[in-house]
Design a protein that fits this description.
Elements lengths: L2 H11 L1 H4 L7 E10 L23 E3 L5 E5 L6 H18 L4 E2 L23 H17 L9 E5 L3 H11 L6 H19 L1 H7 L4 E3 L11 E4 L2 E3 L28 H11 L5 H6 L2 E2 L2 E2 L17 E4 L8 H8 L3 E7 L11 H16 L7 H17 L6 E4 L2 E4 H23 L3 H14 L5 H11 L4 H17 L5 H24 L4 H9 L9
Antiparallel strand pairs: 1-3, 1-4, 1-5, 2-3, 5-12, 6-8, 7-8, 9-10, 11-12, 13-14
Length: 529
């Protein structure tokens, strides 16, 4: 371990500072498709009993009417986050009738593209903008790509931690806001160096239905009449089969400082892209995309991790980052765990907390162009052949096996886990880390290997495996319906969201064309697209 890392660990381990480790916030966003009992995509509208997708803060939709997204409130402890995620699932299942939630990141059997329903958010200007944005995604990437689901993990350190670290570093020449932003950007650099490890440990999509890649070229192998796979893959979701874009191919925001990141995204949301110009913004008098730029909005940029800031009314995300700096980070590369009813386990959350604390505290030199290429190639290897025996990655230009590098990283991360456990006076983070060490020593324990083993044991296609898991999870949630208090809480939230959407629709002024022009001029209200 570097002196830099051990010094910072010791600083936060001091009695007067240790309590700050419990003050950061965590949150989970879980995406999941609604499916029918036969495992095919549910084409029904978003259930009204869940509320209005436009204004319900915890239960909404992502791309499709059929793609639910559950958003937990931020909490200091991931255990509380998991309890709230579980409560959301139990309430939703109580409203779904015979529909279920798909247990996997890779989609169920999908209908023809034109039948996949795009998310609908009502007739308000903001609702229509969200819908038109999704029409643009369909044109740019295809609807099937938008049906892939994942887990997003939101993470922040207590702001006072950054003050403590700044004082220790003697950085009196910059503001605490700048120091904090620099700290999160440094975290992101380390994350991009080491996130291949997360793919090995938690990747859970080594196979998919042939139906998903209809009409697309690929290099996958045939597992059975209905399933494609790669024998050593960990996460095909995060491979080049997933959310890819030629327009974004040359969009490589630098993470060496916040300003360069903001400028890169600002250019992408304002620079037109000729193939999108050829499509235009209207067809037969209807909007089909918000604009013809490389990105319609900032969130269209697909990344494994993002710096984030809660936005105020009238702000775009990059404006909020520019004005007030980075507030938290969003990890976006985690697969749905098909063996976990909520898609993620508490142990995974504990490990992520230790991993991200390590990324925040360890030395994080600026990334060169050569290292950036190395990071991308290491990640690509891990997702497509991470369990291959003896697989080698590149570390500073030299070959190193994934296993030996992974074990070395766990040794460093264990110091962060120990610090977190000392604050809690238990061993949960250390225990979670030990689970991951066993996966590095025994690849058959990884979720990706377990998926393939389960399919082989039951002689199942990918779709049959995922449907079996979905039915098991549905039975578990239905056996534990929401309490009276939980049901009242979510029912009231749903009713309020419907009222809020109606209020927006009734009180808006002007026409949609003017509204879109205002959005382009960054005068949109506080609702994200």
């Amino acid at each position: 371990m570097t002196n830099y890392y051990t010094r910072r660990l010791a600083l936060l381990g001091q009695e007067q500072h240790r309590g700050l480790l419990s003050k950061g916030l965590r949150g989970i966003e879980r995406e999941t498709l609604r499916v029918n009992p036969d495992g095919k995509l549910a084409l029904t509208p978003h259930p009204r009993a869940l509320g209005a997708a436009l204004t319900q803060p915890q239960i909404t939709t992502d791309y499709s009417e059929s793609l639910l997204e559950f958003i937990t409130p931020p909490e200091n402890d991931v255990a509380l986050v998991m309890e709230e995620l579980d409560a959301i699932h139990r309430f939703v299942f109580a409203q779904l009738g015979d529909e279920m939630l798909w247990s996997d990141s890779m989609p169920c059997e999908l209908p023809d593209e034109e039948q996949i329903p795009i998310g609908w958010y009502g007739t308000s200007h903001i609702g229509m903008l969200k819908h038109v944005y999704r029409r643009g995604l369909a044109l740019r990437y295809g609807k099937r790509m938008q049906c892939i689901a994942g887990i997003h993990y939101n993470y922040s350190l207590a702001e006072n931690i950054w003050s403590v670290l700044q004082s220790e570093a003697g950085e009196a020449t910059c503001t605490t806001k700048s120091f904090q932003s620099d700290g999160y950007i440094a975290l992101i650099r380390n994350f991009r160096r080491y996130s291949w490890l997360l793919m090995y440990l938690f990747g859970a999509s080594p196979a998919l239905s042939k139906n998903f890649l209809v009409g697309r070229e690929h290099n996958l192998k045939t597992l059975d009449d209905e399933t494609l796979y790669l024998p050593f893959a960990t996460s095909l979701r995060m491979s080049d089969l997933g959310y890819q874009s030629k327009a974004q191919a040359n969009l490589t925001p630098h993470y060496n400082n916040l300003d360069s990141y903001i400028k890169s995204l600002a250019r992408a949301v304002s620079q037109s892209y000729p193939p999108y110009e050829d499509i235009g913004t209207h067809r037969d008098g209807e909007w089909i995309q918000i604009n013809t730029n490389i990105l319609q909005i900032e969130n269209e940029y697909y990344s494994t991790i993002r710096p984030k800031r809660v936005i105020n009314s009238g702000e775009r995300p990059i404006q909020a980052l520019s004005a007030r700096g980075v507030q938290y980070i969003e990890v976006r590369c985690m697969d749905i765990d098909p063996f976990e009813p909520t898609g993620i386990s508490l142990e995974t959350g504990r490990f992520l907390d230790a991993f991200l604390l390590f990324c925040a505290l360890d030395d994080s030199p600026c990334t060169s162009d050569e290292e950036s290429v190395e990071n991308v190639e290491n990640f690509a290897k891990a997702v497509k052949e991470g369990r291959r025996p003896g697989l080698e990655l590149q570390y500073n230009g030299s070959a190193i096996t994934l296993q030996s590098w992974g074990l070395a990283l766990l040794e460093k991360i264990s110091a962060s886990a120990t610090l977190l456990d000392a604050q809690r006076e238990d061993t949960q983070h250390g225990d979670a880390l030990e689970q991951q060490r066993r996966k590095l020593l025994s690849p058959e324990l990884t979720p990706s290997a377990r998926v393939l083993a389960a399919m082989q044991e039951h002689n199942e296609t990918f779709a049959q495996f995922a449907l079996r898991q979905s039915k098991q999870h549905a039975a578990q949630f239905r056996a534990h319906p929401p309490s009276v208090e939980e049901n009242a809480y979510f029912t009231e939230m749903a009713a309020k969201s419907l009222d809020d959407q109606a209020q927006i629709e009734q009180t808006q002024t002007g026409d949609f064309e003017t509204f879109v022009a205002a959005y382009r001029a960054s005068t949109l209200g506080n609702m994200s697209v």
